[in-house]
Design goal:
about 55 residues, mainly alpha, globular, Arc_rbn_hlx_hlx, XACb0070 ribbon-helix-helix domain-containing protein
């Protein structure tokens, strides 16, 4: 497993954590699961377009 440490705006973190609770509840690993899903979706979007910035 890899470890990534990031800083995001407080309001984005609050919204994200609230939605994780709605979707996954208070389960161990829910945050990691949601972040992995978000990264996968981001990669799909950018790998399809061949986009490079």
């Amino acid at each position: 497993m890899g470890v990534i440490t990031v800083k995001i705006p407080d309001d984005l973190e609050v919204r994200f954590r609230k939605k994780i609770l709605d979707v996954y509840g208070v389960k161990k690993g829910a945050l990691g699961k949601a972040i992995s899903e978000a990264i996968e979706l981001w990669l799909e979007k950018h790998e399809k377009s061949g986009e490079r910035k």
